[in-house]
């Protein structure tokens, strides 16, 4: 299968050879065939270490779609929630009755506001401060990606299940999907590090996102650590949800590959971003989600293809904007190569 994806692999290798990121673990899935490769370094500062197969990454916002979104959809299947239910019906202290679970899932809630000294607050103080925010003019008018939407979804899950969201993700998603190397409490010795500063030292095995550090098990937006192998298992399940209907029914997973915004002029699925592709005159959506630390998943159920891309682009510093141009080249190459694979 490697030949049809030569350009994808070429673009991925550029990120390492041109030192845009220290190293990359990636998998390309096309039907039953899988390419998996690991290249480059795991750490360049303060020491230099080569990246090893099976290392654990802080996957950042992939937590939203691997864990939190799946839990919400499970609760909808069980009749404990509905996508168009008002948030205030579950969280009475929520600040606007217009907002539904669908708005949170699709990043169309318009939540805005400022929490003073946010990163210095305790868990309890930050949880209280979240309810002092407000809904701005973007409500149902724009897709504005925000961790806040998934923090509130995590609190909704906790209210229904009476257990911290990260515990629920472990019990109801990671365990049944046999994602045995995915965890919210990783062994630092096998973790790919994130940022390094002279002041804080090296962040390794501790979640990079400051909100997730404070909220701990109550954070539905970030905090998960995972491996190339586990995320390959996860996207393979999305391509074949009938293999484990105990997690979600096939028709529920199929809804992910559709526009789910309440305003049809906006484009977003439950959790995932959507990229339109056309094969033989027929349009379909490809799922895309990325994480701040340098992680990304692409899933195309129509073509039965997926890409798992893991890097630590924030190492040694998060000030790495050129990465996004290179990442876009990887996305475009994968979509083009995938189309060629279909037509070939």
UniProtKB/TrEMBL annotation:
SUPFAM superfamilies: beta-lactamase/transpeptidase-like (SSF56601). One of its GO terms (molecular function) is hydrolase activity. InterPro entries: Beta-lactam-related, Beta-lactam/transpept-like, Diverse_Enzym_Activities. The lineage of its organism: Bacteria, Bacillati, Bacillota, Bacilli, Lactobacillales. It comes from the Bacteria. This is Serine hydrolase. Signal peptide: none annotated. Residues 11-324 form the Beta-lactamase-related domain. Keywords: Hydrolase.
């Amino acid at each position: 299968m490697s030949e049809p994806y030569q350009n994808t692999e070429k673009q991925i290798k550029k990120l390492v050879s041109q030192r845009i990121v220290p190293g990359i673990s990636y998998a390309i899935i096309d039907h039953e065939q899988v390419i998996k490769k690991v290249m480059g370094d795991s750490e360049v500062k303060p020491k230099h270490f080569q990246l090893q197969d099976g290392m654990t990454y802080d996957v950042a916002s992939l937590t939203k779609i691997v864990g939190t979104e799946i839990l919400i959809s499970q609760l909808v299947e069980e009749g404990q929630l509905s996508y168009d239910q008002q948030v205030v019906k579950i969280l009475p202290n929520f600040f606007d009755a217009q907002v539904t679970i669908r708005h949170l899932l699709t990043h169309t809630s318009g939540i805005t506001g400022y929490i003073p000294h946010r990163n210095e607050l305790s868990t309890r103080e930050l949880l209280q401060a979240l309810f002092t925010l407000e809904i701005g003019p973007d409500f149902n008018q724009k897709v504005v990606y925000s961790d806040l939407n998934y923090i509130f979804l995590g609190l909704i899950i906790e209210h229904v299940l009476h257990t911290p969201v990260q515990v629920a993700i472990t019990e109801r998603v990671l365990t049944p999907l046999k994602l045995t190397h995915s965890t919210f409490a990783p062994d630092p010795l096998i973790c790919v590090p994130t940022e390094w500063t002279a002041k804080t030292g090296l962040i390794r095995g501790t979640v990079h996102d400051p909100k997730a550090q404070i909220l701990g098990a109550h954070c539905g937006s970030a905090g998960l650590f995972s491996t190339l192998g586990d995320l390959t298992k996860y996207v393979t399940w999305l391509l074949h949800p009938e293999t484990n209907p105990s997690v979600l029914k096939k028709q529920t997973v199929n809804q992910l590959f559709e526009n789910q915004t309440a305003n049809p002029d906006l484009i977003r699925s439950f959790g995932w971003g959507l990229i339109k592709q056309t094969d033989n005159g027929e349009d379909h959506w490809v799922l895309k989600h990325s994480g701040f630390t340098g992680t990304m998943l692409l899933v195309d159920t129509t073509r039965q293809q997926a890409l798992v891309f893991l890097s630590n682009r924030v190492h040694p510093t998060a000030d790495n904007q050129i990465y996004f141009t290179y990442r876009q080249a990887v996305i475009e190459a994968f979509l083009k190569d995938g189309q060629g694979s279909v037509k070939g």
